[in-house]
Structures are given as C-alpha cells and as structure tokens.
Design goal:
The protein is mainly alpha-helical and about 375 residues long. It has 18 helices and two strands. The longest helix is centred in the N-terminal third of the chain and has 71 residues. About 30% of the residues are buried.
C-alpha cells in the first residue's frame, strides 16, 4: 500500500510542488494584504483624529473670536461717543438756548453720523478680529502639532499681544478718519432736510443708501484703511524694533494687510454692512408702526409691512432722538440681535474657515 502511495506521489510530484507554491504564495499575499489594510486603517485613524482635533481647535477659536468682539464693543462705543458727544448738545437744549434751531441742526448731523459710524466700525471690528484671530489660531495649531520644534513657535505670546494691539488703529486714527468721511456724507445728504419734514422708513432707508454710496464709492481710500495702518513705516513702528518677535509681528501684520486687500474680504465686509444696515432699519421700524386698525383699511393682507413702511412718517425732529440712541443697541456689551447677526453670518463663518485653513496647513502641504 505504501509503495502505491509513493508511486502516486512521484507521478504527481510537479502538481504538488505547484500547488504548494500557490498555497504559500496566497498565504504570504494574504499576510501582506492584512498588513497593508492594517497600515491603511491606522493612517486613516490618525488622519481622522488630526482632523477632529483641528476642527475642535477651529471651533474653540471661533468662540474666542465672538467673545473678543463682544469685549471690544464697549471701548468702541466709548471711542465713538468721545468724538461725537451728542449728549452735550441735548444737555444744552434742555436749557432752552436762543440758538435752539442751530443746535438742533448740529444734533441732526451728529446723531446720524455716530449711528452710521457705529454700524461701519462694528462690522469692521467683527471681520478684522475674525482675520486676526484665525491667523493666530492657524499658527497656534501648527505650533502645537506633533513634530513641531517647541523652540521655534510662529506665534509666541508676546507676538500675539503686539499683533493684536494693532486693533487700536480702528479705535483711534482709523475711527477719526471714518467719522470725517461719514460726517461729510451725512451733511451732503441731510443738511437741506428741515427738522419739520416728515420721513417714512423707506425715505430714511434711501438717505442711508445715499450716505453709504458716498462713503464707499467716493472715498479716496478703501474701507480696509480704517482698520489698519496702510504704510510700511506704520507697520514697523507698531512692531517697535527689530527683535525676532518684532519681525514675526511685522510678518503677521503684512499677512493681515494682504487679507484685508483681497476681493474675498471686500465681499464679506459688504455682506456684514448690508446686514448691519438692514438690522438698523429693523430697529427703527419699531417706531414707525401704523395705529391699530389702520393697516387693515389701507393695505391688503400681503402688503401690510410694505404699506406701513411708506405710510407712517415722523418729523425729522422726532427721528433724531431715536437715531441718536441706536449706538447703545449696536455697540452693546450684552450681545443683541445686531452683533449676533454679524457673528452668525454665513459669509463670515466661511471666510473665517478659509483663513484658518490657510494658516493651519503646513507650508510643505501648500506647495
């Protein structure tokens, strides 16, 4: 029996060798495939963890942006009121002076100027801080990434402090220049409008449109100028020297300037301004309501709101105090609808994500 088995093996030896080779090859190929699958799974898990960590850091950074904006609103409001102190005029009016009409005319220009400046500067504050804090956030993510030498951070604490101090331009020289431009536009638009003349909300909206057109289209400088000093000497002066930290600060300032000059930034700022002035009109609409019962008799059911906007008019003298008080709503330290609308704007969110993406991606991956 054994001899017959041996003879069978000898006759089919080649088949056994080939079969063994195939089985062995399949075994080792399976092992190799398992190793590759395991390696791919580990790589995907690592990438997923890194992506989740990056997303968490980004979202945390946006919350920081929101809190920073809210914390800056009281200083902004104070800076505006210091330069446009309409309260001093209202105090004089209470004494019934002989030049009452003249003071009312000054109050008219000042009230509209400071409310419009408040809208512009708040929108600028929101988008500027979004750019600055997402640039820093991106660099901080890289500084804390695995494999990054801790001895060469791109955004050390001193650099962050120097860099963020550039916001003072918006609250200082930039704000002063913005006030000058807006005041001139307000004078051109409203100087000839009598205090006794009645205006509807639609007519008031048209006044805002004329003023905005002059400020934004006729200005010799782009709106970004009011947010950040333009020339290189000013940027260097803000960095205060040529230490390593100062050089990093200048680089951050220049990168910010590039962002502010980009077409995408202009689109985002314009979206904020559109929403800001729309919210201002919503606030004013509360004072332009039809008396109860009038809407049903004069308007159809589908056009009540439009009809009320055009049908209800108030004398300009009554509109001025309403306009004058809007700064307290716009620049409130308690987040209201105005600033929330800006912070939650989809274009602002998308732009912030793009800025963070650009500065949190290693340079070798950007090439």
């Amino acid at each position: 029996m054994f001899s017959s088995v041996w003879n069978f093996v000898k006759r089919h030896k080649r088949k056994f060798i080939v079969t063994g080779a195939v089985v062995g090859g399949v075994y080792f190929l399976g092992k190799y495939a398992q190793a590759k699958i395991r390696e791919l799974q580990e790589k995907e898990a690592t990438e997923y963890i890194a992506l989740a960590r990056r997303q968490f850091h980004f979202e945390s950074n946006q919350r920081t942006c929101n809190m920073t904006v809210v914390s800056m609103l009281p200083p902004l409001r104070e800076a505006i009121i210091n330069q446009l102190n309409s309260e001093s005029l209202t105090s004089i009016l209470k004494t019934r002076p002989s030049n009452k009409v003249e003071i009312w005319e000054d109050l008219k220009i000042m009230s509209f100027t400071r409310t419009i400046v408040a809208v512009y500067s708040t929108c600028m504050l929101v988008v500027l801080l979004r750019v600055q804090l997402n640039i820093i956030g991106g660099y901080l993510y890289l500084d804390n990434s695995v494999g990054k030498p801790p001895s060469s951070p791109q955004a050390p604490a001193e650099v962050q402090q120097q860099y963020l101090s550039s916001i003072q331009h918006l609250l200082g020289d930039g704000l002063t220049q913005l006030i000058t431009v807006v005041k001139k536009a307000v004078q051109n638009s409203l100087e000839g409008v009598s205090l006794k003349q009645s205006l509807s909300l639609l007519e008031l909206e048209q006044q805002f449109c004329w003023i905005r057109a002059e400020v934004e289209a006729a200005s010799e400088r782009p709106l970004s100028w009011y947010m950040m000093a333009d020339d290189e000497n000013a940027l260097s002066d803000q960095a205060c020297g040529l230490t390593e930290n100062d050089i990093l600060t200048i680089r951050l300032l220049n990168e910010t300037r590039d962002m502010l000059d980009s077409p995408d930034f202009s689109v985002v700022l314009n979206a904020c301004l559109q929403r800001g002035f729309s919210r201002l009109l919503d606030n004013l609409a509360e004072f332009f309501r039809l008396p109860p019962g009038d809407s049903a008799s004069s308007c159809g059911p589908d056009s009540v709101r439009v009809c009320s906007l055009s049908a209800v008019s108030l004398p300009l003298a009554k509109i001025i105090p309403i306009i004058n008080g809007q700064i307290n709503t716009i620049c409130s330290e308690t987040p209201g609808h105005f600033v929330q609308d800006l912070l939650m704007n989809d274009r602002v969110k998308e732009f912030a994500a793009n800025v963070y993406e650009s500065f949190s991606t290693p340079q070798e991956l950007q090439k």
